[in-house]
Amino acid sequence: MNQTSQKISASALRSLDHLISMHDLHTDTVRGILDRAEEIDRGELSPNLRGTVAALLFFEPSTRTHFSFETAMKRMGGETISMSGTGTSSVTKGESFADTIRTFGLYSDIIVIRSPVEGAARFASEIARVPVVNAGDGANQHPTQALLDLYSIRACQGRLDELSVAVVGDLKFGRTVHSLVQALSPFNPKLHLVSPPHLRLPDYLLDRLRGRAGVTEHTDLAEVIDEVDVLYVTRIQRERFADPEEYEQVKNCYIVDCEMLRGAKPTMRVLHPMPRVNEIAPEVDGSQHAYYFEQAKHGIAIRQAILSELIRGNANGIENETNREGAI
Ligand code: NCD
User: Fold this and answer.
1) pLDDT greater than 80 at residue 75
2) How confident is the model at residue 95 (pLDDT cuts 50, 70, 90)?
3) What pLDDT, on a 0 to 100 scale, did the predictor assign at position 213?
4) pLDDT digits (tens, 9 = 90+) for 210-236
């Protein structure tokens, strides 16, 4: 790593109080987070968060995001307190969201929140006295997923610039897609947006991409599969459909199997934020193209990078130093 990227890495999130949307992040900040995660992965950097607590508030189901945040804190010597759903909390007694957030802000050094409500993380960041990380707000944004997706793309392709990327599936409701297309746009990508007609990427996002990325829209995946470097497959977001009938009509619209991948570039990699339902056949798991489990693993280093920068940047006298030799 050269001097410049070390400097960027060291100040990756200093200027940020919260991580709510990809839209808030400068490209240098993004590179800084990826570099920091890489240093952590290589064992060159061991952030120490001993004595700190992360509140993990998940008002929607989660496996990878919740538990990679938890693992990330534990790897750095920190602790977590968790809420999954609202069943055991005072929310069931009628306590407001604002009071819940205020309270967790008193017990922790950072709040990680997932909610079905768009804008919930932004609202929480206006109330809490500690940094807030958006772990998914409705169909809006999922910035930590986009950062780990970029990290995975850079790891499997050796670069981020000028890649041809197909994003496939539910582009309307998929928050990981919304964050990822924004995250990729500074890197001069060719973006192929593949979806059924009524699950297209929302216009406000297409407008933001205009002039920043080469964008084409498709309904047929076969049109692009042979030319892409990355195939980013997503689940149709059943829980966001008002009409279950409509979901039934599109639920199996794209199924990636080995036959479909026959003409793909040997270096092409398939990514998926997971969970998958039927959109990637299990037979693909053993192929050279599968990268989604490595991708899930990268979530730990990325979240270590984010948590350590945000907690350190906002700490007053908390002991949380880093060194290059190993944990303190
Ligand atoms: C995604 C999410 O929650 O948006 N999952 C994840 O965080 N890895 C994708 C999805 O649920 O389809």
Assistant:
1) yes
2) confident
3) 82
4) 888 899 999 999 999 999 999 999 999
**Does the annotation count 142 as an active-site position?**
yes
Annotated catalytic residue within 18, 29, 31, 65: 65
Q: Each residue of 15-52: pLDDT tens digit?
A: 678 999 999 999 999 999 999 999 999 999 999 999 99
Give yes or no: 216 in active site: no
Ligand 1 centroid to Cα of residue 114, in Å, is: 10
Q: Is 65 part of the annotated catalytic residue set?
A: yes
Burial class (CB in 10 A: 0-12, 13-18, 19+), 238: middle
- Known catalytic membership, residue 100: no
d(CA 258, CA 283): 7
Give 10's Cβ-side CA count (13 Å radius). Answer: 11
CB atoms within 10 A of CB 142: 27
Q: 166 - beta bridge partners?
A: 192, 231
Q: Specify the residue with its C-alpha closest to ligand 1, atom 11.
A: 275
Which residues form the pocket of ligand 1, taking CB atoms under 6 Å from any ligand atom? 64-65, 136, 142, 145, 175-176, 235, 273-274
Distance 275 CA to ligand 1 centre (A): 6
What's the pTM value of the predicted model, to 2 decimals? 0.91
Of residues 326, 287, 283, 257, the one with CA closest to residue 40? 326
Beta carbons within 8 Å of 159's beta carbon, 6+ residues apart: none
